[in-house]
Amino acid sequence: MSNKLGQSQFRSDLFKIYELIPKETKVLDLGCGDGTLLNLLIKGKNVKGTGIEISQENIFKCVKNDVPVVHGNLNDGLQEFQDMAFDIVILSRTLQSVYRPDQLLTEMTRIGKTVIVSFINFGFITNRYQLMFHGKMPMTKTLPDFWYNTQNIHLGTIKDFQQLCCKLNIKITNKIPLGNKVIPLAKIWPNMFSSTCVFTLTSQ
Amino acid sequence: MKKNNSVGIVEQKSVVFGENGDDPFILESGKKLQPLTLLYETYGELNEKKNNAILVIHALTGNAHAAGRHTQSDKKTGWWDDMIGPGKTFDTDKYFILCSNCIGGCSGSIGPRSINPKTNKRYNMDFPIFTITDMVRAQYKLMQYLTIDKWLAIVGGSMGGMQALQWAVDYPDSSVSIIAIATASSLSPQAIAFDWVGREAIMSDPNWNNGNYEDIIPEKGLATARMLAHITYLSDKSMDIKFGRRMGNSETNSKNFTKNFQVESYLAYQGQRFVERFDANSYLYITRAMDFFDLSNKTNGDLASALSSSESKFLLISFTSDWLFSPEESKKIVHALRRNNTDVVYCNIESNCGHDAFLIESETISPLISDFINCRYKEEKDVK
Fold this sequence. Notes:
Strand order of the largest sheet of chain B: 1-4-8-5-11-12-13-14
Shape of chain B: globular
CATH superfamily of chain A: Vaccinia Virus protein VP39
Structural class of chain B: alpha/beta
Strand order of the largest sheet of chain A: 3-2-1-4-5-7-6
Oligomer: heterodimer
Strand content of chain A: 15-25%
Largest sheet of chain A: 7 strands, mixed
CATH class of chain A: Alpha Beta
Radius of gyration of chain B: 21 Å
Shape of chain A: globular
CATH architecture of chain A: 3-Layer(aba) Sandwich
Largest interface: A-B, 17 and 20 residues
Largest sheet of chain B: 8 strands, mixed
Strand content of chain B: 15-25%
CATH architecture of the largest domain in chain B: 3-Layer(aba) Sandwich
Number of domains of chain B: 2
Distance between the termini of chain A: 34 Å
Number of domains of chain A: 1
């Protein structure tokens, strides 16, 4: 299982999230895409997994992957779920594209005992460099689109995210900054050297 | 998916329960139907382990003839022929498929036009009121008769979907999976309203004669009911694309009250065709069964608790432009299932075709359904 996860096409944040999830838990993956992560979790860790996905095409792929998935838009909220309905709620690199990240985070901590968020860090050095010296919105591997056609409408830095959690009374129980080739630096100064950061959260 | 493969010539089968005075079929109302005749068709072979059986359930005006042709010269194939056959979604090389005509219908199973053994006359309006639950119980009898212990899948659209869901409530361990397409856990007030007007049209036709008609049928009333219903099966967009404001023929410079617009001719044609194949009394009874359908009527409106015993995995499909059985109706069911920790897949398919999409969009929904069933079939094979 981890061999498959170790393959380069599997995003590093998903690999980290996979590691963080205990066996036989009840997991909700928000914006689960083609269901790759859930499929691995269901087969490899025997989790009771389910996803929400907005794209019809991805839902078809989920079904091929035998992943239970429900067609839905995260902007419509998570009202249908009861408090603490899941052991784990996952949101991977999606927070920046919802209308109200603050409301979604609050909802996630309501329905999940543990919340795992992987967060794209706009404060990453490459982004800062491009903005500073080219005077243009950054375009990187993590942020591949133009400013005018990107889904990312709420970009922020790790610092911004932490401050928001504090404001929402959400406790950060784990913070795992991911770097590219400069991993030691990512750990020392995440807001500068980590392109994506995985957080685990709980409501206080 | 091999689209051209057909199941070929199929035969209709029928079974009669309670012919000798035993084994009466008791309806939810407490009334008896005896004897109970059921007409059905099967496609493919039941395997030795009997774990490849799929129950396909037709919609309001459908029948047991889901695939193939009855004779070489039949112009039309069964109503879901593009889904059922060798290599198709419901692959008859792999699965055994059963479709039966619902009770109260007019295509071979017992219905208002059948002969009442007590009077030796047609039942007509003496036919007892029956429910979606009764339809399911009749199918359950057929399942026992064919010695099938468990379905691999129960699948239906619209009223067929209602029955598939009712199966999950009444026989919670009877199917590995439930596939409910363009359906609802209860009929919306809007749909009840349309049904009411449709029935009014039939019952106010003098030829209806309180249901006691023979050769002269309430053609006008039934055609009007069908035309009205047909509008609810389409969407404003699909009507705009299909007809626009186009005129039926070139001689329509004179504006009058004949069929000036194409959409009018189309509806009149649909109404006429329907009269040739469907019975007015059956229409009254079956629409009434749909009106009263409410999956949670025994659990005080709590849908999750109604479905809580079900051991099936679910696939629910709705269509964006379906306003008769709207996506919101499917979402209610999905939420209830999720509350129960039941595995559920739900997809709201982008389509302009309105409620009719469940028959028209076969090609679109085909991979979803075949992959879903395939996973269930693999699980079953691995277990046993």
